[in-house]
């Protein structure tokens, strides 16, 4: 099928893009098109207007400093993933991006587009929530910051208003006492995951664990983050604490069934991946400390 | 100022039309098309470049892959208006000007990298760009390079061999020095 007719504009300033968007409540932003165009072609969406932001200058930056990584609305997944400073400052971003689709899709799809598309089976939304990041949203009436914790409200639904353009995403830097890991199970490499887990583990100078948090994608309707610290109250990572962490995680998740996996299978994957990823994040934490020393 | 503003409306349907310059394989084409014209359809129907194939039309199969400013993208996931003024390369642009096969095409021929050939244009464009970034791929890297393209016939073994062989041909006959 082909997309239904729409009027198309390709503004060359942000102000103009915001005006075009404000002028029609049924207009949609077109960034990389890697999610929107399939929806249009399948006629699951038929907006009356598309505002193509690809000609707006100054939106394709990837900037990393000691605070964190800032990604502009037109920075493609491939560019963010390949940025060495971003990888150093917050390695979880590139670790997760490696699992987003295939290289060809990453050449066009944007990281900010993926964040605001708000798909609970996508990698980047849960990473943003886990890290406590935020989005900058511009509209004709001003600019605001939306904290990741307030961004996702339903399947494919965010708190970004229809007249807003997300201009930048912010991923906080990895603290010195932390390590990260990401893993997922997909039917084929590059497909959407049946289940994915990201983890941040923090430990003190002596190597005693101080906090463990994990984020889950493709398990529930929303990107979900669970604090697993209490399973590691004794301060170490061992089989018993990992089992306790997996129990804790599953108590907070409601794995859903779809044509690809039953709820039980998803729960099983969440359990196995929780243990695997927390262990890896802990190893990463230790390795970073040793690397620093 | 907005670029690519509509210039006309279709007298039959009332749909807005845009005048767009598409730069394909070094040639500039002028087309008048609606905003919703997919790049894959503009290439095939408006320009007659039917080498770009359309399989799934939602980004999964890779048959429509073309190079945009040298990088592989899905032509079915872009509107032609969005590609205005940017350099596009389709499978038709991969042969030498005198019609001799490019290294990837030659390798597909030698290694039996195709059967029905439906998926082939997307593989050829993807691999051409892939070898530019990584001229000497391992077999694993060759697999990764083609991981986003679907083939229903070959079982991929011969395509992987073709990637490695194409790298070899390109090394033996660097671009522009082919005898
Ligand atoms: C074959 C295939 C496989 C894929 N696999 C994965 C995968 O495994 N994991 C994954 O996470 N993703 C996957 N994707 C999706 C891909 O990551 C997209 O890049 C991403 O979801 C959307 O980014 P985009 O820039 O293409 O946005 P678009 O498609 O242009 O837009 C998506 C939505 O966000 C809105 N939007 C985009 N940018 C802005 C902005 N700056 N401000 C306001 N609204 C905006 C649009 O209006 C639209 O509603 C896949 C896509 C394909 C085609
Ligand atoms: S036709 Fe474009 S990816 Fe299948
Ligand atoms: S050769 Fe037939 S689909 Fe690949």
Short description:
The complex is a heterodimer of chains A (293) and B (179). With 293 residues, chain A is of the alpha+beta class.
Tell me about this structure:
Chain A has 293 residues and is α+β, with helices and mostly antiparallel strands. Helices cover 34% and strands 26% of the residues of chain A. Chain A has ten helices and 14 strands. Chain B is α+β, with helices and mostly antiparallel strands and 179 residues long. Chain B contains five helices and six strands, in the order βββαβββαααα. In chain B, strands 1, 2, 3, 4, 5 and 6 form a six-stranded mixed sheet that branches. The longest helix of chain B has 16 residues. The N and C termini of chain B lie far apart (49 Å). Classes of the chains: A alpha+beta (293), B alpha+beta (179). At the A-B interface, β1, α2 and α6 of A face β5 of B. The site of one FE2/S2 (inorganic) cluster has 12 residues of chain B, from loops. Chain B: It comes from Nocardioides salarius.
Strand order of the largest sheet of chain A: 4-5-10-6-7
Radius of gyration of chain A: 20 Å
Major pleated sheet of chain B: 6 strands, mixed
Return the average pLDDT of chain B rounded to an integer: 93
Give the fraction of residues assigned to helices of chain A: 25-40%
* Unreliable runs of chain A: none
Q: State the share of residues found in helices of chain B, binned by percent.
A: 25-40%
Q: Ligands bound here?
A: flavin-adenine dinucleotide, FE2/S2 (inorganic) cluster
**Quaternary form:** heterodimer
Helix/sheet category of chain B? alpha+beta
**What is the N-to-C succession of helices and strands of chain A?**
EHEHEEEHHHHHHEEEEEEEEEHH
Largest sheet of chain A: 5 strands, antiparallel
How far apart are the first and last residues' alpha carbons of chain B, in Å?
A: 49 Å
Q: Cα distance, first to last residue of chain A?
A: 59 Å
Elements of chain B, N to C (H/E): EEEHEEEHHHH
Supply the number of helical segments of chain B: 5
Most residues in contact: chain pair: A-B, 37 and 37 residues
Determine the number of helices of chain A (DSSP H or I, runs of at least 4 residues): 10
EC number (chain A): 1.2.7.4
Protein name (chain A): Carbon-monoxide dehydrogenase medium subunit
Domain FAD-binding PCMH-type (chain A): 1-176
InterPro entries (chain A): CO_DH_flav_C, CO_DH_flav_C_dom_sf, Diverse_Substr_Oxidored, FAD-bd_PCMH, FAD-bd_PCMH-like_sf, FAD-bd_PCMH_sub1, FAD-bd_PCMH_sub2, Mopterin_DH_FAD-bd
């Amino acid at each position: 099928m082909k997309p239904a007719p729409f009027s198309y504009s390709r503004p060359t300033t942000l102000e103009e893009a915001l005006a075009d968007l404000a002028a029609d409540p049924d207009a949609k932003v077109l960034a990389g098109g890697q999610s929107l165009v399939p929806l249009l072609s399948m006629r699951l969406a038929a907006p009356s207007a598309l505002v193509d932001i690809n000609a707006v200058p100054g939106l394709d930056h990837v900037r990393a400093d000691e605070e964190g990584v800032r990604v502009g609305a037109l920075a493609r997944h491939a560019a963010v993933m390949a940025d060495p400073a971003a990888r150093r400052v917050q390695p979880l971003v590139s670790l997760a991006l490696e699992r987003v689709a295939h290289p060809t899709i990453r050449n066009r799809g944007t990281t900010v587009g993926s964040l605001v598309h708000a798909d609970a089976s996508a990698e980047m939304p849960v990473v943003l929530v886990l890290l406590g990041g935020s989005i900058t949203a511009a509209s004709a009436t001003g600019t605001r910051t939306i904290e990741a914790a307030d961004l996702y409200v339903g399947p494919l639904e965010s708190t970004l208003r229809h007249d807003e353009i997300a201009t930048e995403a912010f991923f906080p830097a990895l603290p010195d006492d932390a390590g990260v890991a990401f893993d997922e199970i997909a039917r084929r490499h590059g497909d959407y995951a049946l289940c994915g887990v990201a983890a941040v583990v923090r430990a003190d100078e002596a190597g005693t664990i101080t906090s463990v948090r994990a984020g889950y994608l493709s398990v529930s309707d929303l990107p979900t983050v669970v604090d697993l610290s209490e399973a590691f109250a004794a301060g170490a990572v061992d089989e018993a604490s990992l089992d306790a962490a997996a129990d804790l995680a599953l108590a907070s998740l409601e794995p859903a069934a779809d044509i690809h996996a039953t709820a039980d299978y998803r729960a099983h994957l969440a359990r196995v991946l929780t243990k695997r990823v927390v262990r890896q994040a802990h190893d990463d934490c230790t390795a970073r400390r040793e690397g620093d020393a | 100022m907005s670029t690519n503003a509509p210039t006309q409306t279709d007298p039959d349907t009332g749909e807005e039309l845009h005048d767009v310059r598409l730069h394909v394989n070094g040639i500039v084409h002028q087309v008048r098309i609606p905003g919703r014209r997919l790049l894959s359809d503009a290439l095939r129907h408006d320009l007659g470049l039917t080498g770009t194939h359309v399989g799934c039309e939602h980004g999964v199969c890779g048959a429509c892959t073309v190079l945009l400013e040298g990088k592989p993208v899905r032509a079915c996931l872009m509107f032609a208006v969005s590609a205005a003024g940017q350099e596009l390369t389709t499978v038709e642009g991969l042969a030498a000007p005198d019609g001799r096969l490019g290294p990837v095409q030659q390798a597909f021929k030698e290694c039996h990298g195709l059967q029905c050939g439906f998926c082939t244009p997307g593989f050829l464009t993807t691999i051409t760009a892939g070898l530019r970034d990584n001229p000497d791929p391992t077999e694993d890297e060759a697999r990764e390079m083609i991981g986003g393209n679907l083939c229903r016939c070959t079982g991929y073994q011969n395509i992987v061999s073709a990637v490695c062989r194409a790298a070899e041909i390109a090394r033996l006959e660097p671009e522009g020095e082919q005898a």
